[in-house]
Design goal:
D-amino Acid Aminotransferase, Chain A, domain 1, four-stranded antiparallel β-sheet, alpha+beta, Rossmann fold, Dna Ligase, domain 1, six-stranded antiparallel β-sheet
């Protein structure tokens, strides 16, 4: 197939005075783009990279019309807007060009962490209680209060619509109302978006990668609002990855911080497969598959969890990422597939095969 790899390189992003220093940390590097292009070529495809911007000199629409791809490998984050990760897929649907990964609605939904959490709550899936702040002095929701009417600390503060743990540092953990108000105000100024405050889950951090697509009959579980009882046909979970938080300095406060994902990424400390008791691992896989289903992910995703050390390692869903990082030397999903024995080329071409099969570009092999 002829495949266009669509991404936003950090070096091509706009800049302005006063922008947050981590503003574009979720954008990709040439290492990722080149890795995907070379993997696709190794898989027998014709492939090229196109910067996913409609603005000159990139001119995404014209370049797509000229290149005439059979499929786009989409990892575009875009730059602005509440649903920015959905912008390029919307263009592709207007042009009727198939693409890998989740569709417009899912990408808009899952970028917004509070909206995602509302879906999880509706389906009775475990996620920390939360409140969204658009002003630092808003009244406090009952969900954050204990039986005595006081806030149940510690709480955790982060932007609602960012990736790569942007805004996540030791300061994100707050233990007083004054700290909460100050951190919300700081993040409102830095990120110009609603700020999410949720109960902080102290414990291990684990992520589950998923590849494949669900059989139509699995959709019944959406209507029933019940946890899947087994991993459905067509869907596979990758080995669980645990961030080895104990390997980092106390300055990271036991968090998977933005600093770990950027400044310290070349020496990422992790365990994969994660040392999890079989019953807990099975439960995490079922939760991840259920989240994949209820948010209507396609082809590939990653679901992040915290295990509550004060409550028998009870898992809490933090978020789902339908555009997981694919840097061949830095990204969680790549470490997970490697633990399965896959090469990077196998990972990338499996995603392509999965997407092509789903959209009828190739015939499914039983």
């Amino acid at each position: 197939m002829r495949i266009a790899v669509l991404a936003n390189l950090k070096q091509n992003a706009p800049h302005w005075a006063g922008m947050s220093p981590d503003q574009w940390d979720d954008l990709d590097s040439p290492v990722t783009v080149d890795g995907i292009v070379n993997a696709l070529r190794a898989g027998g495809h014709e492939a090229t990279f196109i910067e996913a911007s409609i603005h000159p000199p990139h001119n995404l629409v014209q370049r797509l019309l000229d290149y005439k791809p059979d499929l786009c490998f989409n990892i575009a984050e875009s730059h602005f807007g509440d649903g920015r990760e959905a912008q390029v897929p919307a263009i592709l649907e207007m042009l009727r060009i198939p693409y890998t990964g989740s569709k417009v609605l899912t990408l808009a939904l899952t970028l917004d962490k509070p909206m995602t959490k509302r879906i999880l709550v509706y389906h009775a899936l475990p996620t920390p209680e939360f409140q969204v702040f658009e002003e630092p002095d808003e009244s406090l929701d009952l969900d954050l209060l204990g039986d005595d009417g006081e806030l149940r600390f510690p709480l955790f503060v982060k932007p609602s619509r960012e990736g790569t743990s942007m805004g996540v540092s030791a300061e994100s953990i707050v233990t007083s109302v004054d700290q909460l108000r100050a951190q919300v105000e700081k993040q409102l100024q830095l990120y110009s978006q609603p700020i999410l405050c949720e109960h902080f889950i102290e414990g291990r951090e684990v992520t589950i990668g998923i590849i494949g697509n669900l059989e139509p009959t699995a959709a019944r579980r959406v209507r029933e609002r019940t946890l899947l009882e087994e991993i459905p046909d067509g869907l596979m979970t990758l080995p669980a990855l645990e961030v080895n938080l104990d390997a980092y300095d106390e300055s990271e406060a036991g968090l998977y911080t933005n600093r770990i994902k950027t400044e310290l990424a070349d020496n990422f400390q992790f365990l994969c497969p994660a040392p999890l008791e079989p019953g807990l691992l099975h439960h995490l896989n079922l939760l991840a598959a259920t989240v994949f289903l209820v948010t209507d992910c396609k082809d590939v995703a990653r679901v992040d969890f915290r295990l509550d050390k004060h409550n028998g390692n009870k898992p809490y869903i933090l978020e789902v990422n339908p555009l997981p990082g694919l840097n061949p030397t830095l990204s969680d999903l790549c470490f997970q597939s490697s633990a399965l024995g896959w090469s990077y080329e196998q990972l990338i071409n499996t995603i392509v095969h999965t997407a092509a099969e789903r959209q009828g570009l190739i015939t499914r092999v039983s």
